[in-house]
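haha ok so turns out i had the wrong file open the whole time. this is the CORRECT one, sorry everyone. sequence first:
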Amino acid sequence: MLSALGCKNPFAPALDTSESGSTSTISDLKTVEGVFQNFQYAYVFKDTSIYGELVAGDFIFTYRDYDQGVDVSWGRDEDLKTTYGLFQNSQRLDLIWNNEVLDSRDSLSAIIVRAFNLTITFNPTDVVRINGRVNLTLRKDPVSEKWAIVKWIDESNF
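then structure:
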């Protein structure tokens, strides 16, 4: 059997160097639903490269700091650092998208308010469950026809 395989290791396939034009995303970003599928995949598999393709260059994240009684916002770079920290410091992330509360879209923009359940397992004795809603504004690039998140308002009570 080994002679039939020659020097190739069946458990280490060759690197695909074809120029198929594919990106590192899992689902097609040419639909809003594809953005949500990739978002879920990025969280579950803690994949910052997939997550990074979902947020636009002018992205803004906003959440409510209930202790201070103010809204806090940051841009794409800080969001990627924060998400990377979450991915690195958790053992497991489970994200479930639930019903859409609002879906308002045209050919180049969309506002989606959607419920979610996020379970963050830092270790077996430290598990955080967050139930809330995201309020996302998405924009479609007219050239690539891909959707990206430009604004995320966290509407959870965490």
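Residues 15-22 have pLDDT under 50 and may be disordered.
again sry for the mixup
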